[in-house]
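MOLECULE: protein
FOLLOWS: sequence and fold
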Amino acid sequence: MISALAGLTRVDSGSLSVMGHDVEKGYKQARKALGIVPQEIVFDPFFSVRETLRFQAGYFGIASGAALDAWIDELLANLSLTDKADNNMRQLSGGMKRRVLVSQALIHRPPVIVLDEPTAGVDVAPRQTLWAFIRRLNHNGHTILLTTHYLEEAQQLCSRIAMMKSGSIVALDTTAHLLNAFSERVLKVIVAGDCRPVGGQI
């Protein structure tokens, strides 16, 4: 689904739109409205973190200048990357590279953000910082689609949760309702053979 939203895969049937823009017929507007953080770590090894973000902004027609530099500084601060701004991308750890990917997805201030397991490989402290930043973006009006295998992350960040199996949604509800529905634990014990009580007790 994420690949289809990004225009990397064509759907067999149906349609997808971002903020009312069809991802095929209005792909330019759809992609401007969308920021995607991929699960795979992809980076250009020839540029620093700041240069990488400036190039990414250029893809969306954002001119260099004080406004862009201020936004880049804000992104780097919120993602604990300020001290790495002038480092080459090759010098960063896997978790730092992932945070740069988050910055790239946000550089054009899209109203819809897709985060595909953004905290995989990220240490605890930067993860908490990233969570706080995601909450702030959502509070400021951004729609965020988060995929995660961490239940704690879903509980902390999501107002609604969808569970998928084999490409189909098998559950979709508010976080509170889903947790209440599946919070009961049942232990079933199947005993093979004779199971008579010993000493009158089981």
